[in-house]
Amino acid sequence: MPEKIKLLTAVLGTEQVPPHLARSVIEERLRGAIIDGRLPPGTALRQQELASLFGVSRMPVREALRQLEAQGLLQVVMHKGAVVAPLIGEDAVDTYALRVLLESEALRQSIPLLDAEDIARARGFIQQLENETRHAELGRLNRLFHMSLYAKAQNQKLLRLIENELNEEERFLRFHLSSMGLGKLTQDDHHALVDAASDKQVEQAVKVLEEHLNNGARTIRKYLDSQSAV
User: Is 189:204 a contact under the CB 8 Å cutoff?
Assistant: First the structure.
């Protein structure tokens, strides 16, 4: 068996996928493997190899790869096709800058309408984040936490844009953890954000959110600057 197929088999398994679930299952398995590093940057993902591995046609594989490309997890490279994107790149800082703009507005719209159940749900996600160590699951819970605080925003297109950015940001989690020498991320900012939202202190919550996101951007900027100096 070629080494490439051995890698894909070891990472993704050999379980056959029901045709009606193929696209979503393949997308989720690849996504998790990319985020937690089992499929490293530069790994080529060929449609026919994946189709054979999962026992499906190339169509659901093609659609899954398109979704992952849209999320910034894959890049299309000439003569190689879809490959796993670098863990971090110049666009990462832009992602955080865009998140500040979008999420601050969503928070302002949503906080006045949040009720006790919404706050409890957000705190529940923090609790799960404090106990979780799997990178893919950390990313999912982080996205759900933030979206729980923005959920009551009236602008649905704004929420869709934010969710797209949060999906892309999940690939940065491994970078943050490794760059800071941590096994997990601190939840202090998240606690402060929920406390402000619970007290209906809109501008305080926005301030906490902006500092939270700007800290992430600064970490990435420092790393990129150090790489360019090498």
Answer: no
